Please model this.
Amino acid sequence: IETGKVGIVGSGLIGQSWAMLFAAAGYQVKIYDEDPSRMTQALEEIKIQLQDLDKRGLLRGELTVDEQFSHISTNETLEECIKDTFYIQESVPEEVELKKKVHTELDKFIGSNTILASSTSAILPSIISEALVHRNRFIVVHPTNPPFYVPMVELCPAPWTDPEVLETTRALMKDIGQKPVTINKEIDGFVLNRIQSAILGEGWRLVRDNVISVEDFDIVMKHGLGRRYAFMGPFETTYLNAEGWKSLSERYADTFYRVEKTFGEPEKMVGPTVDKIQNECNKMIPIEKLQERRQWRDRRLTALAKLIKDM
Ligand code: NAD
Model:
């Protein structure tokens, strides 16, 4: 991969994280945001974050704070931002029409070798890229928040995306220290959010039907399944739980099938069960303490990242 210039379009929460990830790996990062004050703010926040990471011994890569910071520049126009870039990561708000508009603009300026990536969480790549001249250069690159501590990235090509775009993007993500996965066929929710829906959907039904409390359901995840899942996936977990997957199938296929058949119908998460969940959550964490708890979460994620790095 070239260690050339990368364009970041949209400098909010996610755009900033991308800028930091690329700069840490030695890329030149060019930011554009339609709101200039957001760019100034982004630079300020990036500097604070880099200094803070450095203090905690968590700075990525070989470069110092100043070196990393000097790799990031802001641009007054979109055209200037994407000039000479080989990869562009769009991170504007999650609205279909806005995404289409921004990519139509980008389409006008890019060369036929540029990769056009979108951070979208839930819009299918074919919807954003269908009408683009360079639609074969488009791919969804969906990070997990906060990308600095949670490295998994979903790569989802459209049906017309060049295989080389997928291959290069995968290599690029590995090069900046992320953990890419490939979604071979576009599908609603990609994979992470499909799994999250499955877990929350079942949690909703179990709480609604008084099978378990909200607090205990969360304990099942954080002190049960989650303990393993922090470093080992469900397929490997079950592979180890029997004498391999063939043996797992022989022993447990009937049980898994029987249980799965008892799952209820999907239900929109509205109505009295929302109040029940809200009240129970509020008992665990009073709603006015959310910000404090978010900071606590980020510290725990940092500690976990460190632990896993040392593993
Ligand atoms: P955000 O609101 O923090 O930032 C969006 C930025 O885009 C703002 O600075 C805004 O000024 C700028 N912008 C708006 N219109 C623009 C335009 N036409 N051209 C250039 N810049 C423009 O949003 P975010 O949380 O960073 O999310 C960005 C994308 O990343 C969304 O698609 C979102 O779904 C996705 N994403 C978010 C998360 C998350 O947890 N926040 C996780 C994964 C993916």
